[in-house]
Amino acid sequence: MAAGEQTRNTARSQSLERGLAILSAFRSGKPLLGVSDLSREVGLSRSTTHRYIATLAGLGYLEQDPPTRKYRLGPRVLDLGFSAINSMDLRELAAPHLQALSDETGHTVNMAVLDDADIVYIERCRTSQRGQRDIDLNLHIGSRLPAYCTSMGKVLLAHLEPAEQRAALRQVRFAPRGPNTLTEKDELLKELARVRTAGLAVNNEELAYGLRSIAAPVRRQTTGEVVAAINLAVHRSMVSLDQLVAHLGPMLKHTAEEISARISYAQVRG
Fold first, then answer.
1. How confident is the model over 228-265, as pLDDT tens digits?
2. pTM given for the model
3. Distance CA 101, CA 107 (A)
4. CB neighbour class for 66 (10 Å; exposed up to 12, middle 13-18, buried from 19)
5. Could you give the CA distance from residue 203 to residue 213 in angstroms, rounded to a whole number?
6. Which of 25, 76, 108, 231 is exposed most, by the fewest CB atoms within 10 A?
C-alpha cells in the first residue's frame, strides 16, 4: 500500500462512518427502524448499534417513537437537509422562473433532484386552484418520493449514464401507488427510453389517484448533464392528458431551458 493511501485510510473515522451508515439506513420506505433492524442494516452487533443510536439520539439526529420504541430521523438531520437545500444556487436561480410558470398556468410547479432511487423536492410553487389540494399529497421542500412513479423521477432516471441507471434501478422496490403505476422493470425501461427521446415525461395517475404531471430536464449546458427536473402537476379534472402535453408541455420545456441558460450564465460569470 502506498504511503498516501495509508494516510488517507488512517485519517478516516470508523465511528463517523458507522454513525452515518445508521442515518443512511432511514429511507422513504423505512421511516421507523428498531435497534435490531438497524443492526442488520449496518452489519454491527446489537449492542454496538445501540451505543451509536444512543449517541445520535442524544445529539438530536435520531428520536424515538414512544408507541413502537423504534427510531426515526430527528430534527438535526432535517436542519442539515434544509441548510443544504437552501444553499443550492440552482434553487435560487430557478425560483423566479418556476413562480412565473405557476402564475401563468395556474398550476403547481415543482423542482427536484435525484438521490439514489428517490427524488428530493428542492422547490415548490403551489397554487390554490380548485382541485389542486386533492393532489398536494402533503409534499414540501425536502420531501422524498420514489423516482420510478413520478414524472420528475422518470426524467432524472432516463438521463443517467447506463451504469448509473442500472445501479439506481437495482434499488427500486416496485409497488402499485396509483391506478396506472408501472410495476415491471421492463415497462419502466421502455418508458425511460421514450422520455429520453421526447425530452418530456408524463405521469398519468402513477403516483396517486387523480394526479397527472409532466416533467422536463434542467441541464448544465456546458456539459449537457441533467442536474434537476421540473414538473407541472394538475388534477385530472382540470386538464386532459392530451391538453397537458400539447398545451402545457411547450411552456414547461421553455421554462426548463430558461433555467438551464441561467445556470450556464451564472457558471460563466463565476
1. 999 999 999 888 999 999 999 999 999 999 999 887 55
2. 0.69
3. 8
4. exposed
5. 5
6. 76
